[in-house]
Amino acid sequence: MPLYHQPVDAAEVPRFAGHSTFMRLPSVATAEGLDIALVGIPWDGGTTNRAGARHGPREVRNLSSLMRSAHHVSGIAPYEIANIADVGDLSVNPINLLDGMERIEKGMAQIVANGALPLSVGGDHLTTLPVLRSVSGGLRAVGNPLGMIQFDAHSDTNDTYFGGNRYTHGTPFRRAIEEGLLDPTRIVQIGIRGSVYGPGEHDWAKAQGVRIIYMEEFIRRGPDDVMAEATQIVGCQPTYVTFDVDAIDPSMAPGTGTPEIGGLTTREAQQMLRLLHPVNIVGADVVEVAPPLDVGGMTALVGATVMFELLCIIANQVRQERSG
Amino acid sequence: MPLYHQPVDAAEVPRFAGHSTFMRLPSVATAEGLDIALVGIPWDGGTTNRAGARHGPREVRNLSSLMRSAHHVSGIAPYEIANIADVGDLSVNPINLLDGMERIEKGMAQIVANGALPLSVGGDHLTTLPVLRSVSGGLRAVGNPLGMIQFDAHSDTNDTYFGGNRYTHGTPFRRAIEEGLLDPTRIVQIGIRGSVYGPGEHDWAKAQGVRIIYMEEFIRRGPDDVMAEATQIVGCQPTYVTFDVDAIDPSMAPGTGTPEIGGLTTREAQQMLRLLHPVNIVGADVVEVAPPLDVGGMTALVGATVMFELLCIIANQVRQERSG
Amino acid sequence: MPLYHQPVDAAEVPRFAGHSTFMRLPSVATAEGLDIALVGIPWDGGTTNRAGARHGPREVRNLSSLMRSAHHVSGIAPYEIANIADVGDLSVNPINLLDGMERIEKGMAQIVANGALPLSVGGDHLTTLPVLRSVSGGLRAVGNPLGMIQFDAHSDTNDTYFGGNRYTHGTPFRRAIEEGLLDPTRIVQIGIRGSVYGPGEHDWAKAQGVRIIYMEEFIRRGPDDVMAEATQIVGCQPTYVTFDVDAIDPSMAPGTGTPEIGGLTTREAQQMLRLLHPVNIVGADVVEVAPPLDVGGMTALVGATVMFELLCIIANQVRQERSG
Amino acid sequence: MPLYHQPVDAAEVPRFAGHSTFMRLPSVATAEGLDIALVGIPWDGGTTNRAGARHGPREVRNLSSLMRSAHHVSGIAPYEIANIADVGDLSVNPINLLDGMERIEKGMAQIVANGALPLSVGGDHLTTLPVLRSVSGGLRAVGNPLGMIQFDAHSDTNDTYFGGNRYTHGTPFRRAIEEGLLDPTRIVQIGIRGSVYGPGEHDWAKAQGVRIIYMEEFIRRGPDDVMAEATQIVGCQPTYVTFDVDAIDPSMAPGTGTPEIGGLTTREAQQMLRLLHPVNIVGADVVEVAPPLDVGGMTALVGATVMFELLCIIANQVRQERSG
Amino acid sequence: MPLYHQPVDAAEVPRFAGHSTFMRLPSVATAEGLDIALVGIPWDGGTTNRAGARHGPREVRNLSSLMRSAHHVSGIAPYEIANIADVGDLSVNPINLLDGMERIEKGMAQIVANGALPLSVGGDHLTTLPVLRSVSGGLRAVGNPLGMIQFDAHSDTNDTYFGGNRYTHGTPFRRAIEEGLLDPTRIVQIGIRGSVYGPGEHDWAKAQGVRIIYMEEFIRRGPDDVMAEATQIVGCQPTYVTFDVDAIDPSMAPGTGTPEIGGLTTREAQQMLRLLHPVNIVGADVVEVAPPLDVGGMTALVGATVMFELLCIIANQVRQERSG
Amino acid sequence: MPLYHQPVDAAEVPRFAGHSTFMRLPSVATAEGLDIALVGIPWDGGTTNRAGARHGPREVRNLSSLMRSAHHVSGIAPYEIANIADVGDLSVNPINLLDGMERIEKGMAQIVANGALPLSVGGDHLTTLPVLRSVSGGLRAVGNPLGMIQFDAHSDTNDTYFGGNRYTHGTPFRRAIEEGLLDPTRIVQIGIRGSVYGPGEHDWAKAQGVRIIYMEEFIRRGPDDVMAEATQIVGCQPTYVTFDVDAIDPSMAPGTGTPEIGGLTTREAQQMLRLLHPVNIVGADVVEVAPPLDVGGMTALVGATVMFELLCIIANQVRQERSG
C-alpha cells in the first residue's frame, strides 16, 4: 500500500473515465496532512478585457487526465515522494471584486495553515494577489516579503484602470509590492512583450528594482542563461512562482484573454521550469487559462503540463526538505 | 436626399465591407436629433455563471449587416419614417459592479434627455436595471413606474447571491420593483422555464402581481393568445420591452450564459414581436448574447434580427406619434 | 448481381471508410447509361456576401455517407429501381464569372445529352441559371420554359448588384425568366422571408406571375396545403426543383451565406419533398451549403438528406416512366 | 440538516466552481443507502461509425451544473424526497468489446444489489445491453423480461455487422429480446426515422411485437396521445426507459454519432418524459452523447436536462413507493 | 490636446467596447491631412482555392483592439509622431474581377493623392496589384518601378490559371513586373516554400532578377542576415512592403487560404519587420487573413500585430522625413 | 501522354473540386502496376483514450488537395518517376479488435504481393503492427526483421492495458519485436517525451536495444546530427518509417488522441524527412491524425504534407532502384 495519495492508473481506468480531478488524484476536503495542495481558483473578477479564466480550473482538471505519474527527464515520481491531493476550488464571488479577493485570501490561508504548499490554477492574474497575502504570511515565509519568478507576457504592474480602480489583472504586482508582500528586488519577470500603453509603462517597476527580461533579451540569451540569472536574483529566500499562460505563444496557448504573439515556446518554458530546482518555492500557480477562448483544449493542456512540471520540482523540494 | 440617416446599401457596398455599425447606419456622437438611438451596453458585471455578454454589442453589430431596409411582412421601412443611428457604446466598467451600473445609468440618461427612444444591446440582464432607472425618469415615462414585457427563460426576480449580493443578472427586476421603476402588476414574463432553486422560487414575483407565462402555458395557447393578454396587461401606459436571448431555444441561440432547452422558436418570437404594436414602448433591449459561447454567429444573428423586428415596431410608433 | 450501381454497404464497410462519393455510389466518368446523375457544382462566383458554397459538394459527399439505401416512409429503394451514380464535379472557374457559368452550362449539357436526369449539389444559387439553360434545352424539356418549385428564404429575382452586375446569386431567376428558361406563371417559391431591400422588392416577380409563398403564409397553411397548391401550379409540364438550404432555419442549417431566422424546419421540408411525386421533374438541385460557415457538419447533413429525399422521388418517377 | 444528499447551492458556489459531478451532488464510493444512483458508463465500444460517446459522462456532468434543485412544472424537488448521489463511472475497457460489456454488467449489478435504481449516462447504445442484464436480474425486476420505452431515431434491432459481429450499438435490443431480458410486446420505440438498410429493416422487430412509432406517426398524433399508448403498452410491470439523444433533432443535439434530421424537439421530449409517471421504472439511461462531435455543449446540455427530467419522475416514484 | 488622432485609451474604455476601427483610431472620411492611412480592402476575387480574405479587414480591426499605443522594443509611439486614422474600406466588387480591381486602384489613388502613405489590410494577394498601380504612380514613387519586400510562402509569379486567366492571387507580381510597376531586380521574397507545380515554377521570376529566399535558406541564415541582404537589394529607392500572412506558420496563422507548414514564426517575422527601418517605404499591406478559416482569432491577431509593427516603422519614417 | 498516373492539375481544376483522393491522384482498384500505393487504414480500435483516428484517411485526402506536384527543395517530381495511385482504404472492423487487425494484415498483404511499396495513412498506431506483419513478409523484406525509424512522442512499447490486453496503440512495437517483425537494434525512436507511467517505462525497450532519442537530446543535437545517427543505425537493410503525428507539437498538430507539448516543429520534421534518402524504405505510414479533435484542419494538413515528403523520398528511391 502506498504511503501517499496516488492518481488513478490510466493503464487500468481509461483517462476519460472517472471524476475529473487534478492529475486524477483523490479529491480531499482539506489540506490537512498534505505536502502539496492542488487547488483551483475559478475567478476572473479582475479581467479588464476578455473574461473566461473563471472556467480555468475545470478544464485544466480535465486535461490533466493526460498526465502520467513520473517525469521523463528528471525521473521524479512526485506521488512516491510527497503527499499530494486535489483540495477542490477556493470559495469565490464572481460579482463582487473585493469580496472575491477576501474569499480567496481566506481559503488559501487555511491551506497554508495546514502546512501544505499550494499549487493553484486560476483564474486571472489578480488571484495571485490574495494568494500572496496568505502565502507571505504563512509558516514558510514568516512574514518577510517574497521573491517571485513570473513567466508572463505582461509585467502586471500598472496602477489603475477605468478611473482609479486599483485591483485588476493588470495591477496585482504593483499592489503586492506596495503591500510589502513581494520584495521588488527579488522579482524576475520573463517573457514580457507586446505593445505598451506608453514608452514608460514599466518605469515604476524598474525603479522598484524589478528585473524585467523582455522576450527579445530572452531570445538572445536562451533559457539556461536567463534562469541562471533568475535563480541567482531570488536566491535561497522564500519565493513564489507564477506562470501566466500568456507567457506562451498564442499558437500554443490561444485560450487566454490577452494574447501577445512572439511568445515563449512550450519547449523553452519546460526547460526553464526544470531549472527552478535551486529555488526555495513557497507556492506556485498557473493562471489565465480561459477555456471559452481556447481551441481544442490546447491551452488547458499547456496549463496542465506546466502544473505537472511545477509539481515535480516542488515534490522534489519536499523530499529534500524532509530528508534534509 | 433622404430626410433621415440611411444604412449603407448592400446592393452597392457588400455586407462584409465598411465599418461595423448597427444596421450599417451612420455612427453618430450623440442622440441629438434622433428618434431612436441604437446603443450598445458591453457589460456583464452581473453574470453569476458564464460571462461573455460584454462582447454582445460588437457581434450583434457584425451580424446586423445582414439586415436589409424594410420588413417583409409589415412593409415598414424604418429609415423612411424615423431618424435612427448608432450612438456607439455606453461607458462601462468591467471590474466594478456599482460604478458600472452608474455609468450605464448616466449614459442612458443622456440619450433619454435628447428625446431619443433607446434600443440597446447588452450586456447581461443586469444592464436593464440602470437603463430602467434612466428611462423611467425620462420624458416619455415622467417618473411613473413602467410596465414591462419580458421575453426570457428566467424571471430574474431572485433576491441575493453569494452571501447577500443584491445586484446580479438574476435579480434586476426584484430591484426594479423595489425601486419603484416597474409596476409589477404591469409586468408580463413570457417563456419562463427550466429547473428552479426551489418550488417557491417565483412566489415573491407572483405576490407582487407579476404575470409569469411559463413555456408550457405558452405552448398550449400560442403566440397570438399570449400577446393579446400581454398587451392588455401593460395597457397604453409607458412600457419597456426586454428580450433576453435565452428566451429562444438553445438550438437557435446557443451563445448565452444560462441556456434552457425547450425554449421559444424564432418563428414564435417574431410572431410575438410583430404583435407589440399596440404597446406604448419607451425603450427596449436585447440582452445576454454572449459571443464567446456562440457557434457560427447564430445567436448574434438572432439578436440582430430581434433588434430589427423591434426597430420596425418602434419606428412605426414614432411615425404614428408624429402624425398623431 | 444487381441490375444497377449499388452503394457501399455500411454493414460491411464502415461509413467512415472508402472514397467519399455521393451516397457511397460508384464514381463514374460520364452519365452514359445512368437514369439519374449525381453531380457537384463547386462554384460560388455569384456570391455577394459570404462565400464558401464552392466547398459544398465535397462536404455533402462526406455527410451523404450517413444515408442508407431505402426510404423509411415511402419504402422506395432507389438503387433497386434506377441506375444512379456519382459523375463527379462539373468544370468551374472560381475567378471568372462568365467563364464559370459557361463551363457549368456545357458540363450539364453533356449529362442531359446522355439522357440522365441531373441531381446536383452547388455551389451558390447562381449555378442554377446555367443548369437551367442546359436542362430546359434538353430532351425532357424540349425547349419549352420550365416550371420550378423553389424552396428558399429569398426570391432571387433581384435585378443588379454593385453597379449593373446582372449575374449574382440574388438574380438567377430574373435572368432565367428573361431568357425564357422558366415560365414565371409556373414558378412557386416557398419559405421566402427576411428583411427586404424595400417594400417593393418582389413586385417584379409577382408581376411576372411568380407565386411567392412567404414563410408566414406557409406557417398558417402547413406543408400539405402549400404543396397541393404548388403541384397544381406547376402541373404535369416539365419542372425543375431547386432547394436552397437557407430555406431551412439557421439552427438546422447554419452553414450558408445568407441565413434568415424563422425558417422551415427539416420536418416541414421533408414532408413537402415527399409530396413532390406528382411533379414531372426534369432536374433538381441543392444549393448554398457553405462548409466554412457550417458547425459540426449540420448543414451538409441537411443537404445530403434533402438530396436523398429528392433522389427517392426522382427514382420512383424513373420507374414509373419506365414501366409506363 | 437535510435527510438526503444535497447538491451544491449555485446561489452560494458559482456553477463553474467545484468538482464536476452529476447535478453537483456528492460523489460517493458505492450505491449503498441510495434510492437512485447516478452513474456514468464511458464506453463506445459498439459504435460502428463515429465514436465519442465514451466522453459523454464527463461532459454531461459538466453541463448538469446548470440544473437547479426543483422542477418548474411538477414542483418535484428530487433531493427532498429521495437519496441520490453520483457513484462515479463504471469500469470499462475501450479496446475489448466483450470484456467491456462484462465490466459494465458487473458494475451495474453492484448498484442494483444495493437496492438503488440506476440512472446512467452512456456511452453508446450497446451499453444498455449489459445494463439490462443486471437490471432485469435485480430485485425490482425479479428476472422477468422488462418492458422498455425507447426514445430513439433508430430501432437498434439489427442483427450483425461487419461479417457476423453480433454486438454493436445497432443491435442491442435484438440481443436483449433473444436473451429474454426484454419482453418485445412491451417495447415501445418512439421517434424512429431516417433512411434504412432496406424496406424490411424493421420486420424482425415488428414480428416480435415491438411497437415502433415512427416520427411521422408521432408528428400526426403528438406527445400526449403517443405517451398514452406507450404507458398503456408497458403497463405496471417493471420497465426500463432508454433515451438515445439522437431521438432529438440534430439542430438541438448535434453531438452524436448517427444524427438523423427531422427529429423530436426538446419540447416534445420534455412533454413525453413528464408523462412517464404511471410507468414502473426500474432503471433509465441517456446514451449517445458524443462530446467530440458536439458544438457549444448543446448536446451535453440536452443530455443533462433529460437526465434531470428522468430524475424527477423517478424520485417521485421512490417517494410514492416509500409512502405507499 | 494631442497634435494627431489618438486611439481610444484601453485604461479608460475597455477593449471590447466602442466601434471597431484599426487600432481603435478615429474613423475618418478621407485621407486628407493624414500621414498614414489605415485602410481595408475586403476583396478576394482572385482566390483560386479557399476564399474568405474578403472578411479580413473586419476581423483585423476587431483584433487590433488588443494593440496599445507604443512599441515595447523601439519605444516608437506612432500616434505621437504622425497623423494616422482609419479611412474605412475601399470600394470593391465581389462578383466582377476586373471591376473589383479597378475600384481598388481608384480608391487607393485617392489616398495616395492626398499624400498619405497607405497601410492596407486585404483581401487576397491580388489586391496588391491595383494598389501597386496607384502607389507606383503617386508622388512618393513618381512613376518609377518600385522595389518590394515580400513576406510570403508563395512567389505569386505564376502566369495563368483555369485556361488563360491572368489575374489571380497566384499571379499579381508577374503582372506587376510586366506592367512596369515593380523593378524585378529590387524584389526580395522571403519565406517561400511548399510543393510547387513543377521544378521550374520559379524560373521566370528568377530570370527577371527576383531574389527568392526560400524558407530553408532563411532557416540557415536567420532574420538579421536575410534582412541585411533584403534592405541592401531594395536600397533607398521607393519600396513597397507586402506581408502575406501565409508567410507565417499555419500553427500561428491557420486562417488563410493556402497554408504551408514549416513557415516563419511570429518571432522571426517581428524581428525582420523591425529591421525594415532603412527602407524607403511608400506603402505596405497585410493580406490573406481569411477569418472563416481562422481558429480563435489567431490569424487576425497576427495580422493586427504585423500591422502595428509596420505602422511603427512607417510612423518613424514619417517623423524622419518631417524633421529631415 | 505521361508514363504514370498524374494528379489533377490545380491550375486547371480548382483544389476544392473533384473527388477527394490522396494527392488528387486517380483512384484505382488494386496496387497492380504501381510502384507506390497510397492507402488509407481507417481504424482506431487500439486507442486507449480519445478515438477519432478512424477518420484520418478521409481528412488527409481532403487536405492533400493542397499538395502540388514537385518538391521545392529537392526538385523531385514524384509522378514523373514512379507510378503512384490511391488504392482506397483497407477493410477494417471498428468493433472487433482482432478481426480488425487481421483485415488490415490481409489487405496490406495484397498490396505488397503486387510489388507496390505501401505508404499508408492511419488510423491509430496499432495499425502499424498488422502492416509490419505483411511488409516484413513481403518481397522487399524477405522475412527478415525490419529496421524502423519512428517519429513519435511515445515509445509505444508498453506491455498490456486494462488487465492484460496486449494489443493497443501503446504496445505495437513490443509486439512487433516479440513477433520478430522488427530488429530492436535497428529501431530508432525520435521525439519521445511527456510524462511516463514510471521511471522505468522504457527499460524493456532499451534492454532490447531500441535507440530512444528523447526530445531533449534532439533539441541539443538538432535534425542533421540525429538523422546521421538514425540512418547509420538502420543501415542499408530493409527499414520501415512510421510517423505518428503526435511527434509534432500540439500547436501544429492538435488533432491527435494523446498530445504532448514541447514537440517537434514541422520545420524540424521536414528537415529530418528529407534526410531519409539513404534508407532502404520498404513501407511507411502517417498515423494518429484524429479529425474530430482537430482544429481548422491543421493536423490533417501536417499529415498530408508529411505524406508528400515521404512520397518524394520513396519515389526517388524507386527511380534509383529502377535505374540502378
TrEMBL record, chains A, B, C, D, E, F:
Binds 2 manganese ions per subunit. Mn(2+) binds at residues 125, 152, 154, 156, 244, 246. Its cofactor is Mn(2+). PROSITE patterns: ARGINASE_1, ARGINASE_2. One of its GO terms (biological process) is putrescine biosynthetic process from arginine, via agmatine. InterPro entries: Agmatinase-rel, Ureohydrolase, Ureohydrolase_dom_sf, Ureohydrolase_Mn_BS. Its EC number is 3.5.3.11. GO terms for molecular function: agmatinase activity; metal ion binding. It is an enzyme of class 3 (hydrolase). Keywords: Hydrolase, Manganese, Metal-binding. It holds the Pfam family Arginase. Belongs to the arginase family. Agmatinase subfamily. NCBIfam families: agmatinase. This is Agmatinase. It comes from Paracoccus liaowanqingii.
